[in-house]
Specification:
This protein has about 120 residues and is mainly beta. The chain is built from no helices and ten strands.
């Protein structure tokens, strides 16, 4: 019998769609996109994207993050945090690199260091 070889060249990511809500803790090994609502914690080894309609009330701990929607809580990113023009962030941010587009709203504190330790470590 021949062995079946599966090559998955597509991007692997998790998603919470618009109209969905999670209350609790999310742990993901790959990228995660939020277009719904989360109340709790997100811990991710990849990139977290909070979409235009996405709302997070809680905390994020990840490698990279792109905020297009709303985050009310703390964000810890080991590499790059991008706040797009429609972003609304309220809370404490710890990251290595912070990119903020014009019109983005950021109310809180930011600590930038070369080595940011994720909460999960």
């Amino acid at each position: 019998m021949a062995k079946e070889i599966v090559n998955n060249s597509g991007a692997l990511y998790n998603a919470l769609t618009y109209g969905s809500k999670i209350v609790g803790k999310i742990v993901a090994d790959s990228d995660f996109r939020i277009d719904g609502e989360v109340e709790g914690e997100i811990t991710c080894n990849g990139k977290v994207v909070i979409g235009q309609n996405g709302i997070l009330r809680g905390s994020i701990s990840c490698a990279n993050a792109e905020i297009i929607g709303t985050v009310i809580g703390d964000i810890v990113v080991s590499d790059t945090l991008s706040l797009r023009s429609s972003a609304n962030v309220q809370g404490e941010v710890k990251t290595k690199i912070l990119m903020v587009e014009p019109s983005a709203v950021f109310n809180g504190t930011c600590s930038m260091r070369e080595n940011v330790k994720l909460e999960a470590e």
